[in-house]
Amino acid sequence: MSQMQWDLVVRGARTVHDGGTGVCDVAVVDGLVAEIGENLAGEAIEDVDGRGKLLLPGGIDPHVHFENPSWDTATAHDFGIGTEAAALGGTTTIIDFAYQAPGEPAGEAVTRRRTVADPKVVTDYALHGTVTDPSFESVETLPGLPSVGSTSVKIFMAYSIAGLMVDDAQLLAAMEQVKKFDGIMLVHAENDSIVEHCRHHHVSVGDVQASAHARSRPVIAEVEAIRRVLTFAEEVGCRVYIVHLSTSEGLDAIKEARARGVQVHTETCPHYLSFDASVLDGEAGPRYVMSPPLRSKFDSDALWAGLADGSIEALGSDDAAYVLSDKDRAVNDFRDIPNGVPGAQVRTSVAFSFGYRTGRLSLERYVELVSTNPAKLFGLYPRKGHIAVGVDADLALWDEDIPWRGDLDSIHTNIGYTCYENVEFVGKPVDVWSRGRRVVRDGLLAADRGSGQYLDRGPSVRP
Ligand code: URP
Ligand code: ZN
Ligand code: ZN
User: Fold this and answer.
1) How far, in Å, CA of 183 to CA of 199, rounded?
2) Which of 318, 326, 419 to mutate for ligand 1's pocket (most ligand atoms within 8 Å of CB)?
3) The model's pTM
């Protein structure tokens, strides 16, 4: 019998796959996983020695904002740099947002956004429909999304000053439309009235430094909005996903709603797991401004516990990177600091170093959080999010012992800073493949811009 001929085989790595976790070989043909087994007999064009390393499914980041016009500027990570950063962290799929222009149907915004992303992406990608024209006419266009491959919709309960906020009636109307196509609604949950009241108060007493941004968006703003949207979801029967969860109380509200049958899912982000609000007091405070803001150590610990017990199902980077001159321009008025921080590269490393390597997360839970669950929630499973015969060969080979430090040499960015300066990580993806195609070799980028693909998504499945 002739020898099997593969495009790629990774041999002898400890692998998390559908059959369990153990040492095996994984062979790839035509971008798909072709065989999994011990000591596979065959030859490959690329034969990789994975012994002593970990082979994991490529990560799926369900929440990034690349080259996103916002404030009076735009996020600086474009689809090229952003997906390269993601790939260096072992992430092989990102999901960004298609903001509507006023009057633009949601599906057309997706098609338009693809023309921006397609020439640049080095990983595969998908797009959430996004209600940024919060009118009833606009909301009625949401059922057009599945025909352009999008089965999820983001809405904002805050940011009235930017014209993004849906009111309660529009929120209900949007939920009714999303339910029609059995989609999932992503919710930025902050009570806008509370935020506006607090912003006004802090400015009026001269409390205008970066740290006042956090004081102006108190815990109650997140918790009230979560409780309200979950009351609506219960009434309408719409599946919701609370993005960038930052508080322990918010998590409690989600657990309570889930216990009474509400279809609610949630993510948190690497920054809420890595920092507390005290970093806002320093000179670098503006660089840590995002919404919802950084909270207390108590909240951070509760979020780690939620990741470990499965009540938080996913990790999204919420990468919204602004150049230093944008972040530092408003030291005397927090309202002018563009909200958002980078995170596409470190999303996996925060969970790997400070979750898996410290024993807070099992290896299997780590994989669920950064890959399998986002794939299931956003209609990419079973094609992506796990290693099994027949699925896309999105693979990340990790050396779990490499120590590295966050700085502008180790983190791929064009913004002139990293929130993770001098943070000590352990473990790094050394080789990464997207559909069997090299994107990282020996820890360095090896991908051509435009080589990623747009992904048509199916329905959301419960993790
Ligand atoms: O401050 C943040 N999170 N900026 C990105 C946009 C959003 O609200 O997710
Ligand atoms: Zn948001
Ligand atoms: Zn976001």
Assistant:
1) 34
2) 318
3) 0.98
> 321 CA to middle of ligand 1, Å?
10
Q: What are the φ/ψ torsions at residue 395 (nearest 5 degrees)?
A: -135, 140
Ion ligand 3 neighbours, Cβ < 5 Å: 318
Contact 59, 366 (CB under 8 A): no
318 within ligand 1 shell (Cβ under 6 A): yes
Per-residue pLDDT in tens (0 to 9) along the chain, 463 residues: 467 899 999 999 999 999 999 999 999 999 999 999 999 999 999 999 999 999 999 999 999 999 999 989 999 999 999 999 999 999 999 999 999 999 999 999 999 999 999 999 999 999 999 999 999 999 999 999 999 999 999 999 999 999 999 999 999 999 999 999 999 999 999 999 999 999 999 999 999 999 999 999 999 999 999 999 999 999 999 999 999 999 999 999 999 999 999 999 999 999 999 999 999 998 999 999 999 999 999 999 999 999 999 999 999 999 999 999 999 987 789 999 999 999 999 999 999 999 999 999 999 999 999 999 999 999 999 999 999 999 999 999 999 999 999 999 999 999 999 999 999 999 999 999 999 999 999 999 999 999 999 999 999 999 9
Number of H helices, E strands in the chain: 14, 19
Paired with 64 in beta bridges are: 319
Q: Whose CA is nearest to atom 5 of ligand 1?
A: 340
Q: Cα of 190 to ligand 2 centre, how many Å?
A: 9
**DSSP per position, 201-227:** HHHHTT--SHHHHHHTS-HHHHHHHHH
CA of 291 to the centre of ligand 3 (A): 8
- Pull the structure tokens for residue 71: 């404030």
Cβ contact 394:435 at 8 Å: yes
Q: How far is the CA of 320 from the centre of ligand 3 (A)?
A: 7
Cβ 387 vs Cβ 18: under 8 Å: yes
> With a 6 A CB cut-off, is 320 part of the ligand 1 pocket?
yes
Distance CA 370, CA 439 (A): 18
- CB of 244 closer than 6 A to ligand 1? yes
- CA of 92 relative to ligand 1 center, distance in Å: 22
How far does Cα 246 stand from its chain's mean position? 14
Judged by DSSP in three states, 289 sits in coil
Q: In 10 A of CB 390, how many CB atoms? A: 9
